[in-house]
């Protein structure tokens, strides 16, 4: 198969070796996998948060000519840091018979590969947006700094040093790129570990639910609703996610998990009331009122989330003004 390499780095403060390293490793990958390299596309000092990159667009246009079958990238964040751009241009390439391969991330072609690729792309975008939020600047400002079209003030440098847990001298010194890259790798490993902890914890919940379902099916009468074990597992799983997201400050996951607890708990209460009432011949026509409770609870959660976000934002603004 014929292949091309796409390489990119974000800031003109980064060195040319960044590109050379990507090209070298992609070339080694091509040789080991019997791919015929036809050429390279390189964008220097350009952010992946936009698709407006000359060689990137030239590569997309050339893909329609049927000259190559594979685009090699060092990592997916070299291709794009925007999920929507990534999905769009991968679709264009796919229509042209071209696939994108990340040589450092070992993504399989099966269903699990789809999930892993989505997670990696989401994290690449999350990292940029999270950084903008932490330093209390817009993501457009971050994009300008990435591409070298803006100058960071002392406040931003201090915040970046705090985020990456380095001194200001390390951040602006000769070894800054290496140190920050190392911190970023550590953060990615930490994020992967946290995801695995949440997945394993959730797996244990559903294993217990499945065991209860199997046991009640074998040992109890047919009138028992064995599948309710799975209904009860939903709020239990959501509570676990609330704990993890609170500790690790995953705001969106926390919000969604609380909502899931509210509605799944009410669903469990509703179904339990209906089944128990039917078994004892009671009138359960009014059991639907459980769901009415969910409306004010959901509204309260939205208001609390908004209040907390506003409070944190105001505190950051006050700290910035004081500094």
Q: Mind explaining what this structure looks like?
A:
The chain is α/β, with parallel strands linked by helices. It folds into 3 domains: 105 residues, Rossmann fold (3-Layer(aba) Sandwich), CATH 3.40.50; 73 residues, Orthogonal Bundle (434 Repressor (Amino-terminal Domain)), CATH 1.10.260; 104 residues. 68% of the residues lie in helices and 7% in strands. The protein is built from 12 helices and 4 strands, in the order βαβαβααβαααααααα. The chain has a 4-stranded parallel β-sheet with strand order 2-1-3-4, sandwiched between helices. β1, α1 and β2 form a beta-alpha-beta unit. The longest helix is centred in the middle third of the chain and has 44 residues. The relative contact order is 0.06.
Task: Map the helices and strands.
Layout: E1 2-8, H1 17-32, E2 36-43, H2 54-63, E3 70-73, H3 76-79, H4 83-95, E4 99-102, H5 111-134, H6 139-146, H7 154-164, H8 168-172, H9 176-219, H10 228-248, H11 251-279, H12 289-322
Parallel strand pairs: 1-2, 1-3, 3-4
Short descriptors:
323 residues, alpha/beta, Rossmann fold, 434 Repressor (Amino-terminal Domain), 4-stranded parallel β-sheet, 68% helix, elongated
Average of pLDDT? 78
CA radius of gyration = 25 Å
Helix content: 55-70%
Task: Please count the helical segments.
Answer: 12
Structural class: alpha/beta
CATH H level, superfamily name of the largest domain: Resolvase, N-terminal catalytic domain
Q: Biggest sheet, in brief?
A: 4 strands, parallel
Which overall shape is indicated by the principal axes computed on the Cα atoms? elongated
Domain count, please report it.
Answer: 3
Spatial arrangement of strands, main beta sheet: 2-1-3-4
What is the fold-level CATH name, i.e. the topology of the largest domain? Rossmann fold
Write down how many β-strands occur, each being a DSSP E stretch of 2 or more residues: 4
**CATH level 1 name of the largest domain:** Alpha Beta
Q: How does CATH name the architecture of the largest domain? A: 3-Layer(aba) Sandwich
Q: What is the string of helix and strand elements? A: EHEHEHHEHHHHHHHH
Low-confidence stretches: 12-17, 138-151
How large a portion of the residues is in β-strands, by DSSP E? 5-15%
Q: What distance lies between the first and last C-alpha atoms, to the nearest angstrom?
A: 57 Å
């Amino acid at each position: 198969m014929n292949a091309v390499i796409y390489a990119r780095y974000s800031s003109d403060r980064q060195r040319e070796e960044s590109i050379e390293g990507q090209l070298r490793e992609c070339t080694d990958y091509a040789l080991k996998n019997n791919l015929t390299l036809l050429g390279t596309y390189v964008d220097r000092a350009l952010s992946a948060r936009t698709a407006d990159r000359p060689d990137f667009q030239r590569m997309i246009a050339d893909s329609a000519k049927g000259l190559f079958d594979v685009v090699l990238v060092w990592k997916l964040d070299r291709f794009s840091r925007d999920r929507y751009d990534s999905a769009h241009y991968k679709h264009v390439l796919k229509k042209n018979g071209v696939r994108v391969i990340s040589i450092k991330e070992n993504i399989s072609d099966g269903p699990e590969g789809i999930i892993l690729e989505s997670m990696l792309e989401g994290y690449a975008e999350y990292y940029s947006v999270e950084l903008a939020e932490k330093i209390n600047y817009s993501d457009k400002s971050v994009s300008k700094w990435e591409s070298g079209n803006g100058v960071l003030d002392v406040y931003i440098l201090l915040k970046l040093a705090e985020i990456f847990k380095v001194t200001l001298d390390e951040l602006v010194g000769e070894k800054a790129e290496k140190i920050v890259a190392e911190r970023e790798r550590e953060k990615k490993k930490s994020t992967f570990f946290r995801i695995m902890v949440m997945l394993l914890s959730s797996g244990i919940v559903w294993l217990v639910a499945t065991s209860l379902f199997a046991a009640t099916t074998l040992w109890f009468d047919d009138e028992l609703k064995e599948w309710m074990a799975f209904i009860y597992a939903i709020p239990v799983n959501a509570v676990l996610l609330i704990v993890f997201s609170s500790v690790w400050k995953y705001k969106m996951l926390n919000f969604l998990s609380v909502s899931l607890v509210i509605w799944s708990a009410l669903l469990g209460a509703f179904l339990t009331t209906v089944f128990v009432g039917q078994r004892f011949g009671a009138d359960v026509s009014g059991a639907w009122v459980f769901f009415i409770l969910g409306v004010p609870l959901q509204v309260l959660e939205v208001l609390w989330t908004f209040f907390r976000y506003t409070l944190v934002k105001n505190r950051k603004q006050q700290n910035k003004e004081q500094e």
